[in-house]
Design a protein that fits this description.
- This protein is of the alpha/beta class and 209 residues long.
- It has one domain: P-loop containing nucleotide triphosphate hydrolases (Rossmann fold, 3-Layer(aba) Sandwich), CATH 3.40.50.
- 34% of the residues lie in helices and 23% in strands.
- The chain is built from 7 helices and 9 strands.
- Strands 6-7-8-3-9 form a 5-stranded parallel sheet, with helices on both faces. A 4-stranded antiparallel sheet has the order 2-1-4-5, with helices on one face.
- α6 links the parallel β7 and β8.
- α3 runs parallel beside α5.
- It is globular, with a radius of gyration of 17 Å.
- Bound molecules: adenosine-5'-triphosphate.
- Adenosine-5'-triphosphate binds next to α1.
- The site of adenosine-5'-triphosphate has 9 residues, from α1.
Length: 209
């Protein structure tokens, strides 16, 4: 789905070759500052490489319509964005961004249930805790139903046990879709991914293999 060749970006990333296959789950791991979020932003078209190429479904990413691309490859940022309004509003707004028709309350409630968010659709989203907001944002991107999910530490605010359960449930639900996920948990990466890629902080002239 994505193929990267001889990419470089500032002093942050150098990637000789990397591929993310369609329908597969890839985890990106590595020390803080290694460039995991930067790479995810590149795949989402939020940042452009200084050199090298990224293709998406065989087409050069830089030549694609970014609005359309971000609807197909949806990114969940490390700090989840919560909009003013209810839990329902926050779930449905993603569908609006994607220009997809809204879904009914039953589907919204199901989404809340599988990410274990025990809240009413009418509750004010601002009142949720940090970990609840993170799960709400994850449910929002799930409901958008894109081809590809780019997830930046989607469960970092949760305790270990809950984190693993949410990742497992999410991946079950989106089976067949492409998932590229940054995680700080080597255990989750090994257990739930088809491919694990470790990024290292760049010492000059060293490549990510
Ligand atoms: N806009 C920017 N301009 C310059 N440097 C940046 C920018 N954004 C991030 N960096 C730097 O790039 C490096 C990689 O950052 P990035 O957030 O991609 O790392 P990360 O692997 O996701 O780290 P973490 O696990 O801590 O989230 C860091 O040294 C960071 O300070």
């Amino acid at each position: 789905m994505f193929v990267i060749k001889t990419l470089s970006y500032k002093e942050i990333l150098y990637i000789k070759e990397m591929e993310f296959e369609e329908g597969k789950v890839t985890s990106l791991i590595g020390e803080s500052g290694a460039g995991k979020s930067t790479l995810l932003k590149m795949l989402n078209g939020l940042l452009s490489p200084d050199k090298g190429s990224i293709t998406y479904k065989g087409k050069e990413l830089s030549e694609l319509n970014f609005i359309q691309h971000r609807r197909e490859a949806v990114m969940l940022a490390q700090q989840p964005v919560i909009f003013e309004g209810s839990v329902r509003d926050n779930l449905l707004i993603g569908r609006k961004f994607s220009e997809k028709p809204p879904v009914d309350d039953q589907m919204l409630t199901e989404a809340l249930s599988f990410i274990k968010l025990d809240k009413d659709l009418d509750d004010d989203a601002e009142d949720l805790s940090g970990g609840e907001k993170q799960r709400l944002a994850l449910a929002r991107v799930y409901i958008m139903d894109p081809d590809c999910y780019l997830l930046d530490e989607p469960t970092s605010a949760l305790d270990e046990g809950t984190e693993e359960e949410i990742v497992r449930r999410f991946l079950e639900k989106v089976k067949g879709k492409t998932v590229i996920m940054v995680t700080h948990s080597n255990e989750i990466a090994e257990k739930y991914s088809d491919q694990v890629i470790t990024l290292h902080k760049l010492a000059k002239d060293h490549a990510h293999e």
